[in-house]
Amino acid sequence: MRSALRWISLLVMVMCLILINGCGQRPERKPLTPKLKIIVALSDLCLDGNQIVRKVMEERSKKEDVELTFLDAKSDAREQERQLERILEKRSQRVKTVVIQAVDPTSIYSVIERFKKENIKIVTLETLPQNVPVDGYVASDHSMAGQLQARFVLNVLKGAEGEIIPPVDSRRLPFNAVILKGDPSDLIAEGVVAGIRSVFNEDSRVRVIQEVEHVRGKPESAVITVRQLLAKYNNQIDLILATDSRLAMAGVQALKSAGLNKRVLTLGFGADKEASRALLAGEHDAEVDPMPELLGQYAFDAAVNLAGAAHWQYDTRVLSGDYSVPARIIPVRLIKKTNAYLLEQRWGKEIRSGGFESGEEGKKEQEKGKGGENGQDQEKRQDEGEQGSQEGNGQKKKTRLRITTQEGKKIEMDIPGEIKSIETVEEGQEKQQDTAGTEDIGGE
Fold it and tell me: Does the N-terminal or the C-terminal CB of the chain have fewer CB atoms within 10 Å?
């Protein structure tokens, strides 16, 4: 009996030693499933709308454990082609979907075909290359954007836009419209212009006198365009419609320089920060918002779903040559001064900080507002201080002259001494105002 108990005790000890040694070993780890990787090749990350698209997609990627890589072509079609070719050269097995916002859709035909041969899904954003077998297309409604612009114009002419007064002479028909377009390869611009024409063609009161393309959509080129057209048509331009917010702001800049901004309607597509500020300042009339938040959401959905399956939740199909492409078309909305508050959710209340200013002029306005002082108050104090200093030193008093033209253009100049009288010359006739009639323009 004792012998049996001894053998049982020995057996228990051996089993304990085996268990103790076994517990010290780590269990074999199973390999982790690698993150899904998606490439997003954007035309230009400097664009306000694309920054919103990126922000939305990055927020989704963190929640859904997806790795995103953004490529910035900086509006250079050749650079975008090189970026996409490098992805193919690396041949990463984790890249399942590529989202492409093409700078020039015609330049990426061959690279898209190579992606398809590697079984990588392609989603195109805002631009759809023709006759290429892409898997999905996500875009704002470009044609509707143009229609909304044109309908806004017609409503203004009918006096149906609330506080907006038609800036044109209703006795002169038809009204002259200019359309500022982007690059010749810009398919978005083509869609917007098609929408504009579909409405204006039904109304004889509006005549499109010029459509002008701008290589790579450069705003500085559009400024020159508007100045040349004003000279060509003797300032008889009533409407400027642009297929891009930056082109619209270029038009506003040229009109302000000519003192014509208050009598020419301006409209754009994009609703970026600068255009939003100009709307609130009353220096711009309307923008069509492409809803970049929704563009980012649906582009992300398409990319992720196509990576794991052969389909995604699209709402229509569009024809592209020999292919019927699944698509998601995002609704657009017209933004004017009365509902510009809708854009505060995107840009924040800082868009109310001031109107549209460009270059050094905008910097000067910002500097005037520093220190909690209103720019005009600060300027007035500086002028008064200068005048007091000059008078104390025995120097002549200085008068600041402010002139406002009928078109709303303001001109300021400093004149030594005090003003005795002012003469205006109009069409060869001189009219002289006496000193009593100019007290409100005297020294400050």
Answer: N
At CA 299, angle to CA 297 and CA 300, rounded to 5?
A: 65
E-strand stretches of 59-135: 66-72, 95-100, 121-125
Q: Which residue has the higher pLDDT, 159 or 308?
A: 308
Buried b (16+ CB within 10 A) or exposed e, 6-29: eeeeeeeeeeeeeeeeeeeeeeee
Q: Domain tally for the chain?
A: 3
Let me know whether 188 and 218 are in one domain: yes
DSSP per position, 172-224: S-SEEEEEE---TT-HHHHHHHHHHHHHHTT-TTEEEEEEE--GGG-HHHHHH
CA pair distance 358, 92, nearest whole angstrom: 44
DSSP string, 258-314: TT-TTTSEEEEES--HHHHHHHHTTS--EEEE--HHHHHHHHHHHHHHHHHSS----
| pLDDT for 126 beyond 90 | yes
Q: Is residue 348 part of a domain?
A: no
Please provide the size of the chain in residues.
444
Distance in angstroms (rounded) separating the CA atoms of residues 188 and 126: 7
265: β partners? 239
Specify the residue for token string 């330049």: 107
**How large is the average pLDDT for residues 375-382?**
38
402 lies in which domain range? Answer: 383-441
**What's the token pair of residue 160?**
């149906």
Which residue in 37, 94, 84 sits closest to 61, CA to CA? 37
Residue 270 and residue 146 share a domain:
yes
Q: Which residue has the tokens 């190579």?
A: 114
